[in-house]
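Exam review. A common question shows you a sequence with its structure tokens and asks you to describe the fold in words. Practice with the pair below. Do the first one on your own.
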Amino acid sequence: MTGAAPPPALLTAVRRLLVPLVRTLIGFGISWPMLANLLKSVYVEVAERGFALPGKPMTDSRITLLTGVHRKDVSQIRSAPPAAEAAAAAAPSLGAQVLSRWLTDAAFRDADGHPRPLPRSSGNEPSFETLVTGISKDIRPRALLDELLHAGLVTERADGLLDLAEAAHVPRGDLDKLAYYYGRNLADHLAASGHNLAGGTPPFLERALAYDRLSPGSIATLRQEADRLGMAMLVELNRMAADLADGDAGRDDASHRFTAGLYLYDEDEAPAPAPQNAEPGGGAGAS
């Protein structure tokens, strides 16, 4: 905390990013008092973890100075047991790990590098059973298969072979999974943006393009191409990461994590009055 007023441009940016967040919160019944209590505890947690002075213990008074949270509240928050929200940081589901291995492990890919059709079980040969038990023996492969078939992520042929129906695990209809990825992906994106905003080096890759005045047909074309190109990139990075993780197994310095993501968004904007002498054509930008 420097004592200087925060940059107006940053406050404007924060207000802009809060709009879609608050829209989601209201939609799920999370009121201002609930959010205020959550923010208070997060302010205390972040200050305690990231803003201690070298060689000095973090005190309630310093946290109050940094955050503006009342010292009494700081003391209560710091002495409370870990919040239940920590469960949201749990690892991805076994289903996600199984599908990822099906995509990346050479034993489960064909000569072209695509996920190969698998029998339910086949002794020591690659099968759905060996795919699952290679990750965890705590769940029956049949139970997981039933879940994946029901979700449409795996399909069964007439000859009994199983096909991976999705190029990647994208949870649908399961609020717990959707909320997990919502928090994980947006948190990492914000962390990368904050690092770059503060002048961190080296900067993280963060690029986007934006166009307006597009027709619904153009939007559909762009979405289809973005899906195709983006999924190809993620599948290749997923394969590389799996191979590198295997090579790093057992290394003392193998303590880093890596996230790469994609997103796209479009909406129908209400037409604004055109300024005088405005030139035709869509606006474009990249950042």
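Now try the second one, then compare your answer with the model answer below.
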Amino acid sequence: MEEPLAADQTGTQDVRDTRPGQIPPRPSGVQRVLAKLPLVQRDTPPPELDELAVAIRAAGKADLREVVRAYRYAELMHEGQRRRSGEAYITHPVAVATELAQLGLGTPTLVAALLHDTVEDTPATLQDVREGFSDEVAHLVDGVTKLDRIHVDSKQEQQAETLRKMIMAMAKDIRVLVIKLADRLHNMETIGHMPRDAQKRIATETLDIYAPLAHRLGMQNFKLRLEDLGFGALHPKRYEEIVALVEERNPERAVLLDEVMDSLREQLRELKIRGEVTGRPKHYYSIYEKMVLRGKE
């Protein structure tokens, strides 16, 4: 969930007119809401879901029609809400679901990812989600909602309490944490629209809690991306300096890396061992950590 735009802590900017005498709030029952759509729209993927649909088809582990149905419901429930960037709020849950689809997760997780902010930020209720989708989806949405509602006073308490809650959630259903990590990842990718003090707080929390949690879950891609995004938000000048240094040395590093990989592949062939040799550049936050340890900050 995105950080709040107002004191209501919803994380969205609702531009609907709610003055007395205006159109009453939309019904939140899934069937009633979806019944307003033409039949052809209810399970046909719109262009906004192209990347998500490609990931689902590639993995073959989720029901695309049910995911589209969840999207249609979430889109209607979030209608009129905007992120700080000015984009429609629905772009956030779609990005979260797309990350998870690329990991090959199944229908309940993707549906919950699309609905993960509906109970917190719209007229939808957990009972609506349960009746309109399933107990399993409602369980996941409820788990993410409870994590979003953690509010304590001090930073130390906030970090410790968040970590405890997450560990408890992991014991119940690890998918809740995976959704939350994807949620944090997309929020970090769009953090530039937040006030500077909020950026620092969120980036620190990301480095202290979310990146280590991704590491514990074996989600190395998430861990590395969260670290680099957190580092860039917390120390933008140092981040830019390291990026420039890495780019400057990339050509010679690429040549050396190719030579080492070729040598290793040749040794494997000689030993008649089947294997794949790959290499990757060191990530920016990892470089920064080593520089700090060596006193070169």
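Model answer, second protein: The two ends are 33 Å apart (CA to CA). The chain has three domains: 1-131, 150-234, 239-293. Full marks require stating both points clearly.
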